């Protein structure tokens, strides 16, 4: 991959991104350079992923072109944008991996909910509720709602959950309240009766 920094006047780069110059060779040079910048952030990015991240970088450059003051070389500024884009993607992947781990742990946490020797038909219905709840937590909740609900299932104190999520307890209450409403709606839409949900709620909060 080409290592050298493209040498062109700042005005040339700006004109190219504004579409006035139509300088495709300049943009191709910059694309090659930014791919190398991104590769230095993480060697795990594939060529296709680097292409996608460069395109995201270009989109951000166009969006924030007026923020460039010309106090440095345009390529230096563009490299900074590409670096931030790459680190954002790495953080997104890390969060995604953590959420995947949390979801795997969810089955174990839900299985720990107490059940006072239910009758066979009640046990089957409770199993169906748990499966529906698992799907709803995964599909219906936002990332932050899912994080809060999973933390509650693990028995973490609200003050600790709020600190970890960097929000106050009132905001956490609103977050979990909205999440529970979504989960209850999903269970009702799945056809579970009100008395079954009341029984399940008492178990979940016990």
Description of the molecule:
The chain has 206 residues and is an all-alpha fold. The protein folds into 2 domains: 10-93, RNA polymerase sigma factor, region 2, helix turn helix motif (Rna Polymerase Sigma Factor, Chain: A), CATH 1.10.1740.10; 113-204, Arc Repressor Mutant, subunit A (Orthogonal Bundle), CATH 1.10.10.10. Helices cover 74% and strands 0% of the residues. The chain is built from 9 helices and no strands. The chain has helices spanning 10-18, 24-41, 47-63, 74-111, 120-139, 143-153, 158-165, 169-189, 194-204. Helix 2 (24-41) packs across helix 3. Mean pLDDT is 77; it is low at 115-120 and 195-206.
Topology:
Elements (H helix, E strand, L loop, with lengths): L9 H9 L5 H18 L5 H17 L10 H38 L8 H20 L3 H11 L4 H8 L3 H21 L4 H11 L2
Helix pairs in contact: 2-3, 2-4, 3-4, 4-6, 5-8, 6-7, 6-8
Identify the overall geometry: elongated
Cα distance, first to last residue? 60 Å
Q: Please state the average pLDDT score.
A: 77
Overall CATH architecture of the largest domain: Orthogonal Bundle
Provide the structure class: mainly alpha
Give me the CATH superfamily of the largest domain. Winged helix-like DNA-binding domain superfamily/Winged helix DNA-binding domain
N-to-C SSE series? HHHHHHHHH
**How many helical stretches?**
9
How much of the sequence lies in strands comes to under 5%
């Amino acid at each position: 991959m080409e290592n050298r920094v493209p040498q062109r006047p700042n005005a040339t780069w700006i004109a190219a991104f504004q579409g006035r110059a139509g300088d495709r060779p300049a943009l191709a040079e910059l694309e090659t350079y930014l791919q190398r910048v991104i590769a230095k952030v993480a060697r795990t990015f594939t060529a296709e992923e680097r292409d996608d991240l460069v395109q995201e970088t270009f989109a951000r450059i166009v969006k924030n072109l007026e923020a460039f003051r010309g106090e440095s070389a345009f390529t230096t500024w563009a490299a900074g944008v590409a670096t931030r884009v790459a680190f954002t993607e790495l953080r997104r992947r890390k969060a995604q991996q953590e959420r995947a781990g949390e979801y795997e742990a969810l089955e174990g946490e839900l299985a720990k909910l107490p059940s006072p020797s239910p009758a066979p038909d009640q046990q089957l219905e409770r199993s169906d509720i748990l499966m529906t709840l698992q799907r709803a937590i995964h599909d219906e909740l936002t990332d932050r709602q899912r994080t809060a609900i999973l933390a509650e299932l693990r028995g973490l104190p609200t003050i600790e959950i709020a600190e970890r999520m960097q929000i106050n307890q009132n905001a956490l209450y609103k977050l979990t309240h909205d999440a529970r409403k979504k989960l209850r709606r999903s269970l009702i839409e799945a056809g579970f009766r009100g008395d079954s949900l009341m029984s399940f709620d008492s178990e979940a909060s016990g």
